[in-house]
Amino acid sequence: MNTTKILELFGCGAITEQETLNKLIDHATTVDLDSLPQEWYNKLKAHVDSKPTTDEGWERMRTFYMTGWVGPGSPPSQEELRVKSKAGTEFLRKEFTMRK
Questions:
Q1: How far from 50 is each of 41, 47, 57, 61, 97, CA to CA, in Å?
Q2: Using CA atoms, how far apart are residues 97 and 76, in angstroms rounded to an integer?
Q3: Which residues have C-beta within 8 Å of that of residue 88, sequence separation ≥ 6?
Q4: Secondary structure (3-state) at 69
Q5: CA–CA gap between residue 44 and residue 40 (Å, rounded)
Q6: pLDDT at 77
Q7: C-alpha angle 37-41-46 in degrees, rounded to nearest 5
Q8: What is the pLDDT along the chain (100 residues), one digit of tens a residue?
Q9: What are phi and psi of 25, to 5 degrees?
Q10: 19-30 b/e with 16+ CB inside 10 Å = b?
Q11: What is the structure's pLDDT at 69?
């Protein structure tokens, strides 16, 4: 999912601000930070900065979401969600650091 599509979903009320920020983190490798409006850039940076910075912190983190699971398999586990969020967060932390 690209940056424009994520922001469009928020703009039409399909997802909340929190969901928007989490989707941007989950899709970190495809997020175009240069195309983000400054307001969203600042929000995303603050959200990334608020995430855990240690393995212990990540282990304690819980993610809650509502979903209607459709498709093969089962919905992602807490561990799968945590791993994806951690990877995206660490990727974006590096990106933000390089932009200082």
A1: 14, 5, 11, 12, 15
A2: 30
A3: 25, 26, 27, 28, 29
A4: coil
A5: 6
A6: 81
A7: 150
A8: 789 999 999 999 999 999 999 999 999 998 889 989 999 999 999 999 999 999 999 988 877 666 666 677 777 788 888 899 999 999 999 999 998 7
A9: -70, -45
A10: ebbbbbbbbbee
A11: 62
pLDDT at 66: 60
Separation CA 75–CA 67 (nearest Å)? 9
- Is pTM, for the whole model, over 0.70? yes
Task: Please give the structure tokens belonging to residue 49.
Answer: 């900065």
- Tokens representing 87 are 């990877």
**Distance (Å, rounded) from C-alpha 4 to C-alpha 2?**
6
Hunting for tokens 């959200």 — which residue is that?
47
| Token pair of 37 as six digits | 């409006």
Compute CA distances 1 → 26, 79, 93, 100, whole Å. 9, 22, 20, 26
First-last CA distance in the chain: 26
Compute the distance between CA of residue 84 and CA of residue 61 in angstroms, rounded to an integer: 12
